[in-house]
Design brief:
By secondary structure, the protein is α/β, with parallel strands linked by helices. It folds into two domains: 7-74; 95-287, Rossmann fold (3-Layer(aba) Sandwich). Helix content is 37%, strand content 18%. The chain has helices at 11-24, 30-41, 46-51, 59-73, 78-82, 106-115, 134-142, 155-167, 209-212, 228-237, 256-265; strands at 84-87, 90-93, 124-128, 147-152, 174-178, 189-194, 241-250, 270-275, 281-287. Helix 1 (11-24) packs across helix 2 and helix 6 (106-115) runs parallel beside helix 7. The protein starts with 10 loop residues before the first helix and ends with a strand.
């Protein structure tokens, strides 16, 4: 006599069960999360859910999915569960020492490409607070003759950034160093980029659980007002930019006026704020003089 397979060991019923559990825990996009977990833990994808709904799920796959769902319901982002994140179409490893890359930061790459339309130009690029190295590595993937330097205070982040440069085939043109901002740097650059810590330390306890419990505080804490990195770095930047060089710094949604004031105080003639897809101020674009 044959024994029927329990419904939650079949692809589509399991998928719907996952969505129900995630939705019940107020996960923002339960269907997308469920789909991602299935694609990560089984050989199936969305087309299989539609075309082959009765595809079997093994015990091992089921156990892993159950564990992943439990962690996700507990507030752990999928990127932290799997230790990876897509950014600018590339795959990046992340760790407890690195910020989880956000799509909004891709605006830096987009602006760099607009500033330097000749992608064969041998740019010298510096990434301050490089974290996973996602910004620098993405830039090097676009500018094939560029060289890049990434600086981070965290030894673990530097290790992760090096692995990502190797993984994305730009290791030969990248150099990652452990250090504090511009200390020890003795050359000039065409492009300086940064996604610095810009959240007030008084606001950090109010952040979502996904951010507060999983992103490193070192990559979030911008001091009492969230502006400490800009206050420290802007007055020094001219000493590290070539005459036609530019700097692109990510900022918080409510920091536009303060960061522009700090850029003006530091003597930058060209100062522009660019907005993300949600309409929030996201990147300040500064240069040494008129172009």
């Amino acid at each position: 006599m044959s024994v029927s397979t329990p419904s939650n060991y079949l692809l589509k019923p399991l998928y719907h069960d996952m969505i129900a559990r995630l939705k019940g825990a107020d996960i923002e996009m339960p269907d997308l999360d469920a789909r991602f977990i299935i694609e990560e833990r089984t050989p199936y994808d969305w087309s299989d859910i539609i075309a082959r709904p009765d595809s079997p799920i093994t015990q091992i796959q089921h156990d892993k999915i159950t564990s992943d769902i439990g962690q996700r319901i507990a507030g752990k982002p999928l990127s932290r569960i799997y230790g990876c994140r897509e950014f600018w179409g590339l795959d990046f490893l992340i760790s407890e020492d690195t910020l989880d890359p956000r799509p909004d930061s891709e605006l830096i790459i987009d602006l760099a490409l607009k500033h330097f339309p000749d992608q064969d130009r041998p740019l010298e690029i510096l990434d301050l607070g490089t974290g996973s190295g996602c910004i620098l590595t993405s830039l090097l993937s676009e500018f094939k003759n560029a060289r890049g330097w990434g600086i981070d205070l965290s030894v673990g982040a530097v290790k992760c950034a090096k692995e990502n440069a190797q993984k994305n085939h730009v290791a030969a043109r990248s150099h990652f160093l452990c250090g504090s901002w511009l200390n020890g740097i003795n050359k000039k650059f065409d492009l300086i980029v940064s996604n610095p810590p810009y959240i007030s330390n008084q606001v950090i306890p109010t952040l979502s659980e996904e951010v507060r419990n999983h992103d490193p505080i070192l990559a979030l804490d911008g001091g009492d007002d969230g502006l400490e990195p800009y206050k420290e770095l802007f007055p020094q930047l001219k000493n590290f930019l070539n005459p036609d060089g530019i700097a692109l710094f990510e900022i918080g949604y409510d920091q536009e006026k303060d960061v522009m004031r700090l850029a003006e105080k530091a003597g930058f003639v060209q100062r522009t704020v660019h907005f993300d897809l949600a309409g929030n101020p996201r990147v300040v674009d500064i240069s040494c003089g008129d172009k």
